[in-house]
């Protein structure tokens, strides 16, 4: 019956060789199970055929000596699996002794390529470094080390196409007043620059990140942003050729603040205005039938507030109308109505529009918004929540690029 066991062993070796995609000169010597349930481990021992010559930098070399190496591989059912091999070293023509590369792992890595891809998939699917480490019993530091290597390599080797449509936004990195400036390519829908802070220098530094990878600030045609003085100054200084477009949602937010100021003034002498704040701020089409009836009653009871509310709704229609017509006449007509209302807060908002006119009129031509940047911001906050915060801001930046940088992280490092 010895021949039966020999056949089984040969079939097992052939099976594992196929799974590992081993090619000459590599082969499996033996397979061992070690430990006892539930801590069994599978150990696969590899070797190369004798007198094999190995390539290094395009030249062929005889084996000088060997170095024992071990790699963590994908689990075999529920058992951790490890590959072992005596990896050849060659004596290079420069006189240095160097380790040859093996086909199943990156140079210097203690994981196989398949195991690395598993870790990257777990993190990309939303697991924190800690959870991914727990799932594979290797610890969060080693998971993050892999993520950091792959992101650093991708940023260094994967260039950017021409960036024409840019968004600038800020996001909080920690509790308190610690921020990151985020540059997003609206056409490619990916983050292309990140820097600590939210001032002119932060924008310049994040632009430098993009330019190192092949983009050029001179190619930017349009920049969507909020009305941050720092962002305006940075765009004017570093990208004077680009049209600035102020985000319509930030403009609308400013108008809502003025409407709410009127409500708060009226509320001092009117009890029935209490707890109605969100009725005035929501779009009328999103109100329930009962809420619309309440608004209609309050509009008649408080004419100033009612007129401001109608102007707010009309302003939304004007901004929506830009998708059908790029003419500025509807906006200019609205400005006249708002000014002639005589309502102080509406006139303040008209002055605000005039002061920012250069970035408002371009909205009707470009129809650019910061919606993508706001979506990116939400995803960044979710990344931070999953990890329960990042003490090291550089680590946080690495993880943002991992999830939102549009990088090919499964491409092996050359």
Radius of gyration: 31 Å
Q: In total, how many beta strands?
A: 12
Separation, N- and C-terminal Cα atoms: 49 Å
Which parts are unreliable, with pLDDT below 50 for 5 consecutive residues or more? 1-7
> What average pLDDT do the residues reach?
89
The number of distinct helices, counting runs of at least 4 residues, comes to 15
Helical amount:
40-55%
Question: How would you describe this structure to a colleague?
Answer:
- By secondary structure, the protein is α/β, with parallel strands linked by helices.
- The protein has helices spanning 2-20, 113-124, 129-136, 140-157, 200-212, 229-238, 248-267, 277-281, 289-301, 303-321, 329-340, 344-355, 357-366, 371-387, 393-404, and strands at residues 26-34, 41-48, 54-56, 59-61, 65-76, 79-91, 97-99, 165-174, 178-185, 190-196, 222-225, 243-246.
- Strands 1, 2, 5, 6 and 7 form a 5-stranded mixed sheet that branches. Strands 10-9-8-11-12 form a 5-stranded mixed sheet, sandwiched between helices. Strands 3-4 form a two-stranded antiparallel ribbon.
- A hairpin with a 2-residue loop joins β5 (65-76) and β6 (79-91).
- The longest helix is centred in the middle third of the chain and has 20 residues, at 248-267.
- The protein is elongated, with a radius of gyration of 31 Å.
